[in-house]
Amino acid sequence: xxxxxxxxxxxxxxxxxxxxxxxxxxxxxxxxxxxxxxxxxxxxxxxxxxxxxxxxxxxxxxxxxxxxxxxxxxxxxxxxxxxxxxxxxxxxxxxxxxxxxxxxxxxxxxxxxxxxxxxxxxxxxxxxxxxxxxxxxxxxxxxxxxxxxxxxxxx
Length: 155
Fold this sequence. Notes:
4 strands; two-stranded antiparallel sheet
């Protein structure tokens, strides 16, 4: 196959991938704004990580392509399976980037300076349910407010 023909195939494949990403993206997010909603929901339901859920979905398509390579019957065109595989890797990249952007919380203690409590209470009111243990940290098991006003709970 010459390069010009191959590049046309790639262009057609990328167009298919973009179309599938748009259609399946709407289906899998179930109206949620989080592009990874489906992976996170399934992960929570079955007790694994969103990344593991995504890889299970991805592996299903790998096995289907393997079946195609062995001459087996296919329920879906191989071009679509290839598009799905590539799209899952892009979605995986999104999960990786999301994890990088999320600072892990030390579930033992949260520094007081990272928290903002209602009415300057330093966490000692029923609304915050926090407790300053004297070391400028919130003890595990108490709820406080972060700087955006979201309730957080330590373990």
